[in-house]
Amino acid sequence: MTKTPLLEVRNLRIEFPTRRGTLVAVDDVSFEIAPGEVLGVVGESGAGKSLTGAAIIGLLEPPGRIAGGEVKLAGLRIDNLPYDEMRKVRGREIGAIFQDPLTSLNPLYTVGQQLVETITTHLHVSAAEARRRAIDLLLATGIPAAERRIDHYPHQFSGGMRQRVVIALALAAEPKLVIADEPTTALDVSIQAQIITLLKRLCRDKRTAVMLITHDMGVIAETADRVAVMYAGRIVEIGPVADVIHRPQHPYTAGLMGSIPSVAQDTERLAQIEGSMPRLTEIPRGCAFHPRCPKTFDRCLQKRPDLMPAGTSQAACWLHDPDAMRAAGREAAYFEGDASLINDFNTVLPVDKVGAATKKKPKYFDGDASQIDHYKTIIRPADEE
Ligand SMILES: Nc1ncnc2c1ncn2[C@@H]1O[C@H](COP(=O)(O)OP(=O)(O)OP(=O)(O)O)[C@@H](O)[C@H]1O
Ligand code: SF4
Ligand SMILES: [Mg+2]
User: Fold this and answer.
1) Which of 59, 216, 280, when mutated, tests ligand 1's pocket best, judged by the most ligand atoms within 8 Å of its CB?
2) How many CB atoms within 10 Å of residue 81?
């Protein structure tokens, strides 16, 4: 990335001490976000997405704690600031938008009072100027009759309108970074797209960096510049959004993407990844995805892969390590040129199921020799060859 990052997260580790030992919920997570860039963060429930966001913003709830790594905002470390200083950074430099608008709004104050207070605290403008800015913000977030609505209480707004108010509040101090954790999940589907579009437009205008946490790949596809895929507390793939969606480099991502009907044509129910993410107490040795991965080979069980270059992305998967592949008697060339191969994730692997679930023949029977080679190279255990 050529742009200087605004947010830098390096080797972040989040632990929960428990009576039965320490649980590692986020493990060695590193990423950057540039000014004006939207980084989408996806992954199954429990992957560590919210904890990562909470750690950046200084709102990790005890006993959870940052046990390693660092977080820098505009070059300055913010993970080790005293509480009061971090509170200032949070108000001024980082805006937060959570799933439930009610957690961000105080029911006892009008939205105007809350906006004006945020603006006067952080931007040092007069109350009259702050009110003018607050009305502009409400208008910008699509709240009609903002001059009147500004004096209403949160409960007088519908869910969608309330989330617009939360966005206005998050942006009121003109933060450099916005962390949005499932910002539209609680809203009606018809309103979700509007809110996301709005967030993206407002942030682009101000060159605000955005970390957008969501389960919804559709939202990511429309909004993010890059996407990080998390699994069991780690980033397993990170790269430009179009590449990650259309040319996933990690088998888990391929499975995730395959489950979006609009991305994977002919999917039917093929793309469900079998099994579930391990509990924190049961993260397997080696690659945490190996019990569910249709491409597992010896190395996957022995050693955990770090992120490594994989096409235009980075993926934590031994399939991209030429040495590991050579040791297994295979070639790592697999993902490098032909994006269609990774899309065969579902077609090639559960061959028995494919036959039953699709009306289509698996591709490698269609006469394309490269597909056969791919099958042999990747799928068959070395000792069968
Ligand atoms: N107070 C806690 N004590 C122990 N474990 C916790 C605690 N809070 C969170 N965890 C664990 O940390 C892991 C990551 O949680 P996190 O909330 O970051 O997941 P997530 O990716 O945001 O999931 P979701 O999509 O469901 O919001 C989960 O396995 C969760 O059980
Ligand atoms: S490292 Fe091995 S188990 Fe993990 S995703 Fe890659 S192939 Fe699958
Ligand atoms: Mg979460």
Assistant:
1) 280
2) 16
Asked if 184 and 219 touch (Cβ cutoff 8 Å), the reply is: yes
Q: What is the pLDDT of residue 272?
A: 63
Distance 282 CA to ligand 2 centre (A): 17
pLDDT of residue 29: 98
Ligand 2, closest atom to CA 252?
5
Q: What is the mean pLDDT of each run of 10 residues along the chain (385 residues)?
A: 82 94 95 96 94 95 95 96 92 88 88 95 93 94 94 93 91 93 82 83 89 88 94 97 91 81 46 80 94 90 95 92 82 46 37 31 37 33 33
- Confidence at residue 261, expressed as pLDDT on a 0 to 100 scale: 56
pLDDT at 385: 31
Torsion, Cα of 341, 241, 350, 326 (10° steps): 50
Q: Could you tell me if the CB of 289 is within 6 A of ligand 2?
A: yes
Task: Output the pLDDT for position 271.
Answer: 53
Domains of the chain, by residue range, sit at 34-60+78-227, 248-272+286-384
Indicate which atom in ligand 2 lies nearest the CA of residue 290: 3
Please tell me what DSSP assigns to residue 119.
H
CA distances to 136, 270, 271, 345, 350 from 354, in Å? 55, 7, 10, 11, 6
For the chain, the first-to-last Cα distance in angstroms comes to: 41
CATH superfamily of 34-60+78-227: P-loop containing nucleotide triphosphate hydrolases (3.40.50.300)
- Ligand at minimal distance from the CA of 231 is 1
What is the C-alpha to C-alpha distance for residues 293 and 289, in angstroms, rounded to an integer?
6
pLDDT at 260: 61
How many angstroms separate the CA atoms of 95 and 202, rounded?
13
- State the distance from the centre of ligand 1 to the C-alpha of 16, rounded, in angstroms: 10
| C-beta of 256 in contact with ligand 2 (< 6 A) | no
